């Protein structure tokens, strides 16, 4: 069996912050697109 090399606490915190940050940016971007497309479609209809 291979030896498992676990990440340090600092690495886990850093990776967690990166994942949360990217998730928030993606959510904001998709929310903005949804708002814009909704506004455009309502003006057309």
From TrEMBL:
Claim: Membrane is one of the keywords in the record: yes
InterPro entries for the chain: SecE_bac, SecE_sf, Translocase_SecE/Sec61-g
GO biological process, one term: protein targeting
Localization, UniProt: Membrane
Protein name per UniProt: Preprotein translocase, SecE subunit
Molecular function GO labels: protein transmembrane transporter activity
Gene Ontology cellular component list: membrane
Segments passing through the bilayer: 12-32
């Amino acid at each position: 069996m291979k030896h498992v090399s676990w990440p340090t606490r600092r690495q886990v915190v850093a990776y967690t912050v990166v994942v949360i940050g990217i998730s928030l940016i993606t959510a904001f971007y998709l929310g903005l697109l949804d708002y814009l497309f909704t506004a455009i479609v309502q003006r057309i209809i």
